[in-house]
């Protein structure tokens, strides 16, 4: 199998570049609107690295709790500003939403990015009381799944986690060692195994819904199935017709099946 082709998403999505442009435009418009309404706190620091900052979107009233959304990009591309509008569904349900940035490969290894997300969640949790739900897309799906493993979160934060939805996650990192992107990721077998949720035990006893689009690449359907099968109590939801770029659209709709899986 050609692993580069197996994990190539844009190549198999018509007009894929339009999604990237639309995300950027929609995110900017959402930030402007929320900032004007006094519901946005930007670039809150959670660490020393310039990318260790998160944006916090607040509902109109007192937050019911905190949702953290971690973006994807194979750990080596994108920033938090492209995803702001995906906070819309949760804030409409009166939840605060933190969207963290994080250091990217090749500067950071995946194990280091995992620790950045841990710090981001713990810092955001200091600012918003109540239960916490985690969602992440693609590489972000990997990162939120990693938070459920034994070395994931501090016990006092883990106790507040209500549910986790990894969306189109990378759960077994070993196949990525055979891709060209590994020149940036720098995965060796030891790190790939240590950072693969599929190979690790779920340490927090909470509901997990592994979400994936029915029209995604077979490799991503496999990755989702592997995680759902490996973790006791996890369920798999395959959303018909959705591909890797539109599978997260439900985050914008407070009544979508994806949002109901989170809340």
Task: Describe what this molecule looks like in 3D.
It is built from 10 helices and 8 strands. 34% of the residues lie in helices and 17% in strands. The chain has 263 residues and is α/β, with parallel strands linked by helices. The mean pLDDT is 97. The N and C termini lie far apart (38 Å). It has helices spanning 3-6, 16-36, 88-92, 110-127, 139-146, 155-158, 182-185, 189-194, 218-230, 257-262; strands at residues 40-45, 53-57, 66-70, 96-100, 132-137, 161-167, 208-213, 234-239.
| Measured distance between first and last alpha carbons | 38 Å
Largest sheet: 8 strands, mixed
The gross shape turns out to be globular
Number of helices: 10
Structure classification: alpha/beta
The whole-number mean of residue pLDDT values reads 97
Strand content: 15-25%
| Topology order in helix (H) and strand (E) letters | HHEEEHEHEHHEHHEHEH
- Provide the low-confidence segments as ranges: none
């Amino acid at each position: 199998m050609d692993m580069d082709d197996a994990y190539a998403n844009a190549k198999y999505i018509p007009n894929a570049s339009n999604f990237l442009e639309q995300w950027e435009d929609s995110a900017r418009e959402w930030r402007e609107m929320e900032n004007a309404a006094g519901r946005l706190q930007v670039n809150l620091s959670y660490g020393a690295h310039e990318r260790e900052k998160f944006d916090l979107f607040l509902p109109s009233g007192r937050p019911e709790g905190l949702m953290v959304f971690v973006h994807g990009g194979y750990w080596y591309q994108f920033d938090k500003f492209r995803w702001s509008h995906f906070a819309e569904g949760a804030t409409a349900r009166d939840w605060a939403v933190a969207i963290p940035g994080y250091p990217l490969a090749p500067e950071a290894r995946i194990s280091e990015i995992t620790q950045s997300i841990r710090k981001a969640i713990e810092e955001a949790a200091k600012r918003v009381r109540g239960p916490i739900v985690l969602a992440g897309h693609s590489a972000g799906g990997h990162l939120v799944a990693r938070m459920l493993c034994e070395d994931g979160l501090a016990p006092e934060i883990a106790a507040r986690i209500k549910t986790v939805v990894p969306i189109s996650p990378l759960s077994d990192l070993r196949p990525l060692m055979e891709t060209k992107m590994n020149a940036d990721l720098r995965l060796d077998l030891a790190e790939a195994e240590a950072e693969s949720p599929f190979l690790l035990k779920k340490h927090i006893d909470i509901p997990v819904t592994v979400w994936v689009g029915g029209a995604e690449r077979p490799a991503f359907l496999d990755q989702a199935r592997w995680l759902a099968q490996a973790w006791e109590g996890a369920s798999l939801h395959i959303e018909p017709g959705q591909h890797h770029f539109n599978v997260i659209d439900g985050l914008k709709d407070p009544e979508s099946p994806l949002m109901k899986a989170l809340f």
